[in-house]
Amino acid sequence: MATPMRFAAIVLLAILDPAGNRVSLAAEAPDVVQLTLHADRPGPRIEPNIYGQFSEHLGRGIYEGIWVGADSPIPNTKGYRNDVIAALKRIHVPVIRWPGGCFADNYNWRDGIGPRATRPLRLNQLWGGVEETNAFGTHEFLEFAELIGAESYVSVPVGAGTPQSMSDWLEYMLSPSHLTLAQERRRNGRDQPFKVSFVGIGNESWGCGGQMRPEYYADVFRDFASFVRVPAQNPLQIVASGPAGDDYSWMEVMMADAAKLSGPGPGRGMDAISLHYYTLPSGKWAAKGAATGFSEGEWFDTFAQTEAMQVLLAKHSAIMDKYDPAKRIGLFVDEWGTWYDPDKGSNPGFLYQQNTLRDALVAAVNFNIFHAHADRVRMTNIAQMINVLQALILTDKGRMIVTPTYYAFDLYKVFQGAVQLPLDVSPSFYSYRGQQVPRVSASAGRGVDGTVYVGLVNVDPQQIVALDVALDGLKPTSVSGSVLTGALMDVHNTFESPHALEPAKFSGASLNRGHLAVTLPAKSLVVLAVR
User: Fold this and answer.
1) Are residues 472 and 340 in the same domain?
2) Are 244 and 371 in a shared domain?
3) 100, 128, 206, 238: which has the highest count of C-beta atoms within 10 A?
């Protein structure tokens, strides 16, 4: 290994904010953090679906967020917002999970097919007690996924459903035949079968999906999975409802009892199992913390809670390895993200919250963790895509803005389909009130275009970080990148100031004798392209 590069005691760095103002980020540098990128030791593929989305019938996530109807004055294509379509295409959304969430286990698919004028009006008892018009149903979701080029992940009800209703729904969506349900689909306007890539058997079956014990759900899952019968031209993956956070006993029971089905019949057991984990700054559901106007203590607590994802994936993967050493079964983190107290003045059942620089960094830290576990983690779905929780997009009737989290997805989209490259990081910690979390989060991958990409996060809101990255197995000639940072911890975009926080060109990286020198601003996210 070459001799580490030396940095001056004072590092001068500045960027331009979206308004063109120079933001000085000069500060005394800490000790240099050493990293080693092993380009000669390629790892597993980083599945594009790690950058998946989740859209539930909740608040304004679908109605106004995606769907406005063909007669809306808001520019649309067959009822879908044009501005939302364009924004989602830009970040290459790979997969969308629908219709929930807790809503899924109360959903009757027949409510959402046929002429919209005759669809039943229901009460969304779970989320805000509002009327559900069912204007957005099976056809609308699957056509929307096609429109933006995403795969479809459909959650079928277990708590309020049956294997028969699931089988009927699958036949309606997927059958190329002239059977009764396929003909009904044709009468409703769709001649060719839809494509569904993933089917989730229930949602949070330990909670809102039925308050089940893992032993009971294992049997229920086996029952439902046995009746997943789909045409050969539409193979799909069956996803089991997995644990909440650190419920390792749920994972143990599911892997022991339901990972594989035996005996005659088409059922094959699970292809994947889900995991749900939310970042709550306080760690308490009753008072989670504010989305804006927070203190440095709340900033620190947020990243301390986020770091738990690393432990969860390691421990759940270890249980899965015991029963599935070949790693056939994927671990899908199909609900994750920050969850704060709802914005004041909003319907608390709509789970609407602002989205700041802190959220973008949380997203990037999670991306780096997912990359490190790419051998097992093959899909994740942030909660949620639009107007709900850690949203990528916020709307206000005809207005739309993208959030800092959107930009994290935009910068990291180069990792979709990349080959993961090991990246060792020497210990360096951000300390607060006698506690500490890793200061630098990092991952690397060789993209489908052959470029080596490096994702870096400095979670310290006060201190810049100097990095020395040894590039084993690489002989680069250039480095470029983008940075997302700002002067305030809670800087965010609003409808009045939609460009308050946007990525900027990054000039804090250079190459020297096979090493990469990087100066990370405080509270920043950087993605580099090393060619």
Assistant:
1) no
2) yes
3) 100
Model confidence pLDDT, tens digit, residues 203-261: 999 999 999 999 999 999 999 999 999 999 999 999 999 999 999 999 999 999 998 87
Catalytic residues: 204, 335
CB 414 within 8 A of CB 453: yes
Instruction: Report the 10 Å Cβ neighbour count for 75.
Output: 11
Residue 144 lies in a domain: yes
CA-only gyration radius of the chain, Å: 23
C-alpha pair distances (Å), 445 with each of 48, 361, 440, 450, 512: 13, 19, 17, 9, 21
- Supply the range of the domain harboring residue 440: 23-44+420-530
| Gap between the Cα atoms of 202 and 212, Å rounded | 11
Q: Other CB atoms closer than 10 Å to residue 50's CB: what's the count? A: 26
| One domain, residues 432 and 397 | no
* Residues 220, 162: Cα–Cα separation, whole Å: 10
Helix (H, G, I), strand (E, B) or coil at 493: coil
User: Is 294 within a domain?
Assistant: yes
Kind of pairing between the strands at 272-279 and 330-338: parallel
Q: Does the global pTM surpass 0.85?
A: yes
165 with 210, same domain: the answer is yes
Listed in sequence order, the residues at least 6 apart from 372 whose beta carbon sits closer than 8 Å to its beta carbon are 310, 420, 443
Please check whether residue 350 lies inside any domain of the structure. Answer: yes
